[in-house]
Specification:
Helix content is 75%, strand content 0%. Helix 1 packs antiparallel against helix 4. The protein has a single domain, classed as Up-down Bundle (Growth Hormone, Chain: A). The radius of gyration is 21 Å and the shape is globular. By secondary structure, the chain is mostly helical.
Length: 430
């Protein structure tokens, strides 16, 4: 199919599983935060103080995740170029699985933060290994398709996290929200099982093996005169995308929870019915964002091949700004706002379908994981400021109101789109 061999499909599937579980483990916290944070702080669920602390700690721990993600991405990007794509993929999957599952044993928010940091290092490192491996194994003419299909694992991971949380918190343990979040975290062990299954079938890419005797990669090499511009502009595209994505997605459960509580209060619902409505609305908003992201991810294929990489990013940034402004700026009924996350997902989530093929195109083989890992993950350091700024702008109130201003990030980024390096039609360099 598409001129892709059975083994090449297997490699793509292995990386796809890695990235899907990467997103799955990374987002589990956002679903359980409204119950997890108040429980660890010994606050009544649903109280004004619980809502305030949930917003604060959701922002703080999301930023910590992003910082750990950045460090892990740069560290394991180097390890990936030094010791191999497959070894790094497996190591990072086990690492973020163990860190996420350990969150279930947290007795306070500081322990939770420590376990999240461990998981984030592995999550950051997995992307560089998977993207480099797929780019090097796929046929040249199918590199775009391979990269975009790799990122469809992102919506899969988000959907899986949504369904796991819904099944645990809405069906199995709906009457004990103070404990249900611990069982959700235990599902973070799933990636470890997948990693051990994959390791028997996939080998290191031949393109990487041919580099083993050459000069080893160092981070400084991606800032040499011939690569510096590529590194900086590659980082620019990811920074814009990451700030938009995390500022919107991290607060989906919090926003849905707030809207549901207001609706439940107006309808005079009991506590159990209120909790059920909260989980239903979190599911609705997340599925809308997820399906929009899936469509947006697949759109990277015709956009990149038909228009080119530079116009593709311009389209994603413009559509991101428009969707954020519409969703958080218009006066909409609560349920309509939930469905509007579909429109946000198309560009804000979908743009990430471009990075698995675009960033590897910017660097030679011996620096591919180092360069792509740096660009994709250093942006998380800057993106880490996004969630706290959303909460700070809201002054402890509705974060939804302040996310509106995040739309100016992709809007202003349109000014620099003409500088983005065009790689359409270029073969990977060794």
């Amino acid at each position: 199919m598409w001129g892709i061999s059975r083994y090449q499909w297997l490699v793509l599937f292995a990386a796809w599983l890695g990235w899907g579980f990467d997103v799955f483990d990374g987002l589990l916290f956002n679903y359980v935060a409204p119950n997890c944070i108040p429980t660890l702080l010994h606050l009544p669920l649903g109280s004004p103080e619980a809502l305030k602390q949930t917003q604060f700690w959701t922002a703080a721990l999301t930023s910590l995740l992003l910082l750990g993600w950045a460090v892990g991405g740069m560290l394991f990007g180097y390890i990936c170029d030094r010791f191999g794509r497959m070894r790094t993929l497996l190591l990072t999957m086990v690492m973020f699985a163990a860190g996420t599952a350990a969150c279930a044993a947290s007795t306070n928010v500081w322990e939770l933060a420590l376990f999240r940091l461990v998981a984030s290092l592995g999550i950051g490192g997995e992307w560089a290994a998977g993207a480099a491996m797929v780019a090097e194994v796929m046929p040249e003419k199918r590199r775009v398709e391979g990269g975009a299909l790799l990122y469809t694992a992102g919506p899969f991971g988000l959907l899986l996290a949504t369904l796991v949380n819904y099944q645990v918190a809405r069906v199995w343990f709906v009457d004990v929200p103070q404990q249900s979040w611990r069982y959700v975290f235990l599902f973070g062990l799933l990636p470890a099982a997948a990693a051990f299954a994959v390791r028997w079938f996939v080998r290191e890419p031949e393109r990487w093996q041919a580099q083993e005797l050459r000069k080893r990669a160092t981070l400084a090499q991606i800032f040499t005169p011939e690569l510096r511009r590529r590194t900086l502009l590659g980082t620019f595209t990811t920074v814009v995308a990451l700030i938009s994505w995390w500022s919107c997605s991290a607060f989906i459960p919090v926003i849905a929870t707030g809207l549901a509580r207001d609706a439940a209060t107006a309808a005079g619902l009991a506590a159990t019915a209120t909790q059920k409505l909260i989980e239903d609305w979190k599911l609705t908003a997340t599925l809308a964002f997820n399906f929009g992201g899936l469509i947006g991810t697949l759109a990277a294929i015709p956009l990149a091949k038909g228009l080119g990489r530079r116009p593709m990013f311009g389209w994603y940034f413009a559509a991101s700004a428009a969707a954020i402004f519409a969703t958080f700026g218009l006066d909409l009924p609560a349920q309509t706002r939930l469905y509007m996350f579909f429109l946000i997902g198309i560009p804000v989530f979908g743009v990430f379908g471009a990075f698995p093929f675009y960033l590897p195109e910017l660097f030679p083989t011996r620096l591919r994981a180092t360069g792509a890992g740096f660009c994709y993950n250093i942006g998380r350091v800057l993106a880490a400021a996004g969630p706290p700024l959303v909460v700070a702008a809201a002054h402890g109130g509705a974060a939804m109101q302040s996310i509106f201003y995040v739309g100016f990030v992709p809007l202003l980024a349109l000014l620099l789109v003409p500088l983005i390096i065009e790689t359409r039609g270029n073969a990977l360099t060794d």
